[in-house]
Amino acid sequence: MSQSVGATASAQAFEVLGAVMAKKQLNQEAQMTNLLVESAMQTSAAAQSPSPVGNLGMNIDIKV
Fold first, then answer.
1. Is 51 exposed, middle or buried (0-12, 13-18, 19+ CB in 10 A)?
2. Could you tell me if 40 and 47 are in contact, meaning their C-beta atoms sit under 8 angstroms apart?
3. 8 A C-beta contact, residue 22 and residue 16
């Protein structure tokens, strides 16, 4: 009987270990996703067109 109890405890320990490892992997994937989103936001902010300097380009001449 002690062998079956030991085998059951061992199987449960492996299940817990698997769950812990899966949780760690999900946390790492979430961190990588956050870093990817942050870098994409920084890239899009840097790629925006610059604002005009002075009044250059502020007036539009329309002739009919």
1. exposed
2. no
3. no
Task: For CA atoms 19, 21, 24, 26, give the dihedral sign.
Answer: negative
Interval 8-62: pLDDT, tens = 888 899 999 999 999 999 999 999 999 999 988 887 666 666 666 666 666 777 7
Write the DSSP string, the chain: -HHHHHHHHHHHHHHHHHHHHHHHHHHHHHHHHHHHHHHHHHHHHHTSPPPPSTTTTT------
For tokens 């009919």, what's the residue? 64
Question: What pTM value is reported for the model?
Answer: 0.56
Token reading at 40: 């994409």
